[in-house]
Amino acid sequence: MKLRQLFGRVLFQLRWKNKPKVVGWGMTPIEATEFIKGMGKTVVTFFGYSSVYENEKAMLEIARKVLSEYSPETTLVNIGATRNGLGAAYSVAKSIGFATTGVVSTLALENVGDISKDVDYICFIADDQWGGKLPNSETLSPTSQAMVTCSDILIGIGGNKISCDEMVFGREQGKTIHFYPAEVNHEWLIRRAQRLGLPQPKSFRRAVHEVFGKEHDQ
Asked: Which tens digit of pLDDT belongs to each residue from 11-69?
């Protein structure tokens, strides 16, 4: 673990004290999956944008509608531990009474202020990237492996490349998948393109929609 992450760990402990409960500070996908599966509930994992949604209210309504089909007594809600973007759905899950978990790279320890206050248990995965495929490989990074293998049902609400890699892997593993179209914040994406010297975006529905949205649009 890098020095910044060690400092973040100390800061996290000072800031959050007893909640969220950290299951492990540098877990493997197997360890995280064993813990989450060990809770004995159906694991519903949400995938989507970690950045701002164009219509966050609509995203939260989708999350609420999805969760209305499950029981808090038998279902665990899992997301990526942070409060930004899709992480806002944690508050919906908690308001209904669901237990929540978060699976996230140890990179998140470099900015612990982004951790959601509505996560009950966090599994920090030893990983030097946020997720997606490893460089020059078809293998998922440890964080993405953990996100998929711990899940029974995958819910996509929009989503970029990392979410797409994860959901495609989940489909290959025979997981149940549901997808709902959603646009990333227009201003954010335009500014990102300008900063990186990329062409003006032609669409604000990103990578997951390119793969799973075709089925939805039919």
From this structure: 888 887 777 899 999 999 999 999 999 999 999 999 999 989 999 999 999 999 999 99
Token reading at 116: 């959601």
**What pLDDT digit, counting tens, does each position of 119-177 carry?**
999 999 999 999 999 999 999 999 999 999 999 999 999 999 999 999 999 999 999 99
Contact at 8 Å (CB) between 123 and 35?
yes
Q: Is the pTM of this model over 0.90?
A: yes
Fold adopted by 3-217: Rossmann fold (3.40.50)
Backbone angles phi, psi at 50, to 5 degrees: -85, -15
> Among all chains, which residue has been given the structure tokens 């969760």?
67
Q: Which helix (H) or strand (E) holds 8?
A: helix 3-16
Torsion from C-alpha of 157, 169, 163, 150, nearest 10 degrees: 80
d(CA 56, CA 61): 9
CB 46 within 8 A of CB 157: yes
Residue 76 · residue 108 · CB < 8 Å: no
Which residue carries 């599966």 as its tokens?
Answer: 37
Q: Which residues pair with 178 in a beta bridge?
A: 155
Q: Where are the domains of the chain?
A: 3-217
Q: Which amino acid makes up residue 47?
A: F
List the one residue out of 83, 67, 86 whose CA is nearest residue 160. Answer: 86
Phi then psi dihedrals of residue 160, to 5 deg? -95, -160
